[in-house]
Design brief:
Blueprint lengths: L13 H72 L7 H8 L3
């Protein structure tokens, strides 16, 4: 029965009431199916968000490690440059330092 109607069933056939009951049951089933589909989609999206979040976290951590390694390389190269420059009066100092460098 539709909204706004009274609960007076006088003059309404049993077959008509059965038909409306079946229609209501059908609508209820459709709504329940929609709710299940929405819950499934929510679970998929949450899983996708979790996977993407961990992927970005891994990328971030990897980038931090790479940055640390590059900082260490920069410091090491600066130290080597200082050694190569050495004494400006000793013209062969850069060659001696270069020969002493580990490979």
């Amino acid at each position: 029965m539709g909204e706004g109607r009274s609960d007076n069933f006088d003059g309404v056939s049993t077959d008509r009431l059965k038909l409306e009951l079946q229609e209501e049951i059908h609508m209820k089933d459709i709504v329940q199916l929609s709710v299940l589909e929405i819950r499934h989609k929510i679970a998929e999206l949450e899983a996708q968000l979790k996977n993407e979040g961990s992927e970005w976290k891994t990328r971030y951590e990897t980038q931090l490690e790479l940055n640390d390694q590059l900082e260490k390389q920069i410091i090491s190269l600066k130290e080597k440059m200082e050694k190569i420059r050495g004494n400006p009066l000793d013209r062969l100092s850069s060659i001696r330092v270069y020969e002493q460098m580990p490979v």
